[in-house]
Amino acid sequence: MHADQDPDQLYPEIREAVRSLCADFDSAYWQRVEEQEAFPESFVQALTQAGWLSALIPEAYGGSGLSLTAASVIMEEINRSGGNSGACHGQMYVMGCLLRHGSDAQKQRWLPAIASGELRMQSMAVTEPSTGTDTTKLKTTAVRHGDKYLVNGQKVWISRVQHSDLMLLLARTTPLDQVKRKSDGLSVFVVDLRDAIGKGLTVKPIRNMVNHETNELFFDNLEVPADNLIGEEGKGLKYILDGLNAERILIAAECIGDGYWFVERASNYARDRVVFDRPIGQNQAVQFPIARAYINVEAASLMRYKAARLFDAGRPCGKEANIAKLLAADASWEAANVCLQTHGGFGFAAEYDIERKFRETRLYQVAPISTNLILSYVAEHVLELPRSF
Ligand SMILES: Cc1cc2nc3c(=O)[nH]c(=O)nc-3n(C[C@H](O)[C@H](O)[C@H](O)COP(=O)(O)OP(=O)(O)OC[C@H]3O[C@@H](n4cnc5c(N)ncnc54)[C@H](O)[C@@H]3O)c2cc1C
């Protein structure tokens, strides 16, 4: 992508194809899935079969080897169509850790099957109940015994476990008091959930505000083959952090898709709804918030493209990826509020989809990274303010 190109004109064929696929999963589909508290299996299956979720897997492993910019357009279009990429984004980016840090044998073993959809790798287990964002203090341990590791501990909020075959796990392999830096001594493993569940791993679903399959995990002497260790023992946190820029940019794109969806719905309704003998959108008190929300989504989208362009050029993009995520999550949340307000009471009716998307987009203020942690990153790493934790 060149700096003088209009980024919104990029990848028209991808936009068109994703839109057309998503059109088969309409409002009625998402309402049915939500009512049944089900996983949108046929939607994820259709995206997989069309190859969209293997966008970032190189062609040598059966993926389409697209750029992150292109992948962000895919995520944006899913959410812009009214869908929820939260159900499937893991399948696009969790494998990145394996791709960047796995051995050739591991990549040959898993990537082609992930690309074809034969294997789902859409879970990543990092968060723990007692340590939260303070990742280096996590308490789950993996202790080597011969050709395997024994894993013990607990995780919380681990998504899509019941719809994954493989899960990435971050666990401590060297106790905190025996490492030089607190970020050392953590390791990443591929857990084959088909072997693990019921044999050392217990999965307990958490009912939550959105229809998002997420779980508590309990590890009790779970055996993980030593062959499933990714990269070097003790360097796992670095490997996970390496993947975060891509994740931030893709999540920003989802927020942008949501933002456009809310703005479009709000504008359509404000044009059509007549109260006091005129369209409500004729009142500046109604139209200005929609205009402001649109402006903020547009601005966030530019930062997303900047971050993605740097990422695709192999250049540092931590600052831009974090800023894009914060701007986009704020813009989509503002647009959600405006859209709900514009619809008055009807915004609360499930059949309009607004209350569902409102709840879904609210999540991005908290997960996969909370707004405060992005502010702290920018304060410390960009503005060189003193470390706060
Ligand atoms: C639906 C859902 C799905 C999720 N899926 C996954 C998943 O698949 N895998 C996974 O590993 N995790 C997942 N998470 C967890 C998510 O990443 C965490 O909830 C998030 O990172 C925040 O951690 P926490 O909930 O422990 O909050 P805490 O760390 O307890 O923080 C609580 C609040 O305090 C603020 N805070 C904490 N410390 C500071 C500080 N020093 N300065 C300023 N503010 C601070 C935080 O910003 C936050 O707002 C998911 C969460 C949800 C809700």
UniProtKB/TrEMBL annotation:
PROSITE patterns, per the entry: ACYL_COA_DH_2
The Acyl-CoA oxidase/dehydrogenase middle domain, residue ranges: 123-221
Keyword check for Oxidoreductase: yes
Domain Acyl-CoA dehydrogenase/oxidase N-terminal stretches: 13-118
GO MF term list: 3-methylbutanoyl-CoA dehydrogenase activity; flavin adenine dinucleotide binding
Pfam family, one: Acyl-CoA_dh_1
E.C. code: 1.3.8.4
Enzyme class: oxidoreductase
Highest taxon of the lineage: Bacteria
Keywords of the record: FAD, Flavoprotein, Oxidoreductase
Cofactors named for this entry: FAD
Domain Acyl-CoA dehydrogenase/oxidase C-terminal, chain residue ranges per copy: 234-367
Assigned protein family: Belongs to the acyl-CoA dehydrogenase family.
PANTHER family per UniProt: ACYL-COA DEHYDROGENASE, ACYL-COA DEHYDROGENASE FADE28
Protein name: Acyl-CoA dehydrogenase
Natural source organism: Cupriavidus taiwanensis
Lineage: Bacteria, Pseudomonadati, Pseudomonadota, Betaproteobacteria, Burkholderiales
